[in-house]
Amino acid sequence: MEIMLEIKEENLVRRTNVYERHFKPFVDKMAFIREHFPEANDYPEFNEYVDIVKWPIRKLEYDYVLRQVMDQLREDTFVLDAGCGVTPLPFVFGAQSKNVFAVDFSASSIQFMAKIQDMKYYSTPNPINFSVQDICNLPFDTNSFDLVTCVSVLEHIDFPHYVQALCELYRILKPGGKLVCTMDFWLGDSRKKTCLSGGFTKEDFMELFNLFGSQVDQSGVDQLDLVDKTTINRFWSSFYESPLMDISNREYVAVGYTIVKSTDDEVIGQTIRNLSEYQISNAYDVLLDRNKFIKELMVDYENRLSIIHRLNSEKVIIEADREKRLALIIEQERQLKELKDQLSICEQDRSGKHNIIDLQQKVIERLEQDHSTFSRIIEEQQAKITQFEQDHLNLLNVIKSQQKTIEDFDIGYHNQLETINVQNKKIKELEMLLEEQKLKNQALVNKLNDLMGNRLIRLVHSFGKKNGASGGQQ
User: Fold this and answer.
1) Cis omega before residue 38 (within 30°)?
2) How many CB atoms sit inside 10 A of residue 147's CB?
3) What are the phi and psi torsion angles at 253 (to 5°)?
4) Phi, psi for 4 (deg, rounded to 5)
5) Residues 15, 219: Cα–Cα separation, whole Å
6) What gap in Å lies between CA 136 and CA 129, rounded to an integer?
7) Residue 147 in 3-state DSSP?
8) DSSP letter at 40?
9) Other Cβ atoms closer than 10 A to 97
10) 391-433 confidence digits (pLDDT tens)
11) 104 close to 132: Cβ distance less than 8 angstroms
C-alpha cells in the first residue's frame, strides 16, 4: 500500500518520474486534441481532465499504477482499465499490448474515446476495445485478464456496490494477475455511511484488505495514522499555487494498493466468500444508518417545506404590499409629472418676463442715449450763448472805454457826437439783436425740451402697446 502524499517539490519529482516518462507524452497530446479537435468542446469532462491529469495527486496515482504494471505488459497481455473516463491510460497500455479493454459507465465518455481513437490522435499501434459497462456487473468471463486497473473510481460508488465492484474485478482477474487500485483516503465518516461519493477511512481499508488476506500488501496501512488534517492541507497548499489548480484546499489524499490474485483455488473461493459475507454482514447496519439518514433528511425536508410555506405566505403579503407601494409610486409619479408641467409653464412665463425686462432695459438704454445726445446739443448751444454773452460784454467794455475816452477828452465836435449817437444806435441795435438772439435760443431750448418729452411719451406708449400684446399672447 502506498499513500500519495508529498510535501516537497523535489520528492514529488522523484516519485513521478515514471509518469513523466510514460504518461506525460499522452497528456501533451490531450492538450493538442483540445486545441485542434472541434468536437472536444462538446465534452466538458475531457476539457477538465486535460488539466486534472496534471494535478500532483493524479501524477502520484498514475505513477503508482504504471510502476505496478509496465514491467508486465506484453503484446499478449490482457489488460482492463475499469472506469477509464476520458484519460489516456488505456492508450498508454495500448502502446505495449494488443489486448487492452477500457470500460466506463458514461456512454458519452466512451463515445468520445472511440472518436479520438478513430482520429488516431494518440497514434498507438494497437486498437483499444472501448465499451459502456457497469463494473459491478461485467460481461467478461472469469479469469480473463492479466492486469486490471481502477484509478480513482471506487470512492464514487456507494456501499455495498464498491465491494461488488471489487468482487467483479477480482473475478475476471486471472490467477496470479494484478488488480491495481487507487482510492481516496479521508478523516471523515466511513464510506459505508456516506452517499454518492466520499473517502475511505483507515478502518475501511483494513476491512477490505482483510478480505483479501495475503493477496494484498498491507504494509504501510499504519502510516495512515500519521495523516492528519494539517498534513492533508499542507499537501494541497504546497502545489495549488499552480494555475492548474482551481481550489486551494481539499480533505483527502489518494492511497494505492495492489491485489495479486492467488493461484490457489481455495484462497480464491474464500476471498469471494469473504467479499459476499462482508456485503451481507454490513448491509443491515448500513441499512439502519441510511434509514436514519433518510429520516433526518425527511425531518429536514419537512422543516424546509414548512419554511417554504411560511415564505410563500409572506410572499403573498409582500406581493400585496408591493402592489400598494407600486400604486403609490404610480400616483407619486403622476403628481410629479403635474409638478414638472407646472414648473415648465412657470419657466416659460419666467422666460417671457425676462424678455419684457430685456425690452424695457433696451428702451431705457435708448432713452439714455437720446438724453445724452440732447444734453450734448444743449451744452453746445449753451456754450455758444456763453460765447455770445462774452462777446457782448467785450463790446460793452469797448463802448464804455470809448465813452470814457470821449468824456476824458470832452470833444465837443458835433460830428463826433453824431458818431457817438450812431454808435449808440448800433449798440441799441446790437442789444436788440442780442435780446432777439436770447429769445431764439430760449425758443430753441424749449423746442428741444418739447421734442424730448414727446419722444419719451411715444416710446412709453410704444412700450405699453408691446407689453399689452405680449400679455395677450401668453
Assistant:
1) no
2) 23
3) -135, 165
4) -85, 75
5) 18
6) 19
7) strand
8) G
9) 23
10) 778 877 877 877 777 676 665 566 666 766 777 787 787 778 8
11) yes
Question: Where do the DSSP E strands lie in 232-343?
Answer: 252-260
Report the alpha-carbon angle 407-412-415, nearest 5: 110
- What whole-number distance in Å separates Cα of residue 269 and Cα of residue 273? 6
DSSP state of 20: I
Compute φ and ψ for 2, nearest 5 degrees: -140, 135
The Cα–Cα gap between 46 and 84 comes to 12
Q: Strand locations in 235-358, DSSP E?
A: 252-260
Burial class (CB in 10 A: 0-12, 13-18, 19+), 124: buried
For residue 128, name the pLDDT band (cuts at 50, 70, 90): very high
Q: How many CB atoms lie within 10 A of CB 54?
A: 17
The domain limits of the chain are 2-263, 365-473
* Domain 2-263 fold: Rossmann fold (3.40.50)
- Smallest Cα–Cα separation from 62: which of 32, 77, 84? 84
Residues paired with residue 97 on neighbouring β-strands, in sequence order: none
Q: How do residues 196-243 score in pLDDT, each as one tens digit? A: 778 999 999 999 999 999 999 988 899 999 999 999 988 888 775 555
Contact 149, 80 (CB under 8 A): yes
Q: Which of 370, 358, 362, 363 is nearest to 460 (CA)?
A: 363
Q: Is the pLDDT of residue 472 over 70?
A: no
pLDDT band at residue 247 under the 50/70/90 scheme: low
State pLDDT tens for residues 313-355.
Answer: 888 888 888 888 888 888 888 888 888 888 888 778 777 777 7
Calculate the CA 95 to chain-centre distance. 47
Residue of 22, 64, 29, 65 lying closest to 46 (CA atoms): 29
Q: Higher model confidence: residue 211 or residue 37?
A: 211
Q: What is the C-alpha to C-alpha distance for residues 370 and 265, in angstroms, rounded to an integer?
A: 136
Lowest mean pLDDT across 194-198, 261-265, 404-408, 465-469: 465-469
Beta strands of 387-443 (E only): which ranges? none
3-state class (DSSP) for residue 216? strand
Tell me which long-range contacts 224-231 makes (C-beta under 8 A, separation of at least 24): 224/3, 224/185, 224/255, 227/3, 227/5, 227/185, 227/187, 227/253, 228/187, 229/187, 231/5
Question: Hey, what's the cell of 419?
Answer: 458818431
Cα separation of 350 and 227, whole Å? 85
pLDDT of residue 208: 95
pLDDT at 473: 47
Task: Return phi, psi of residue 259, to 5°.
Answer: -105, 120
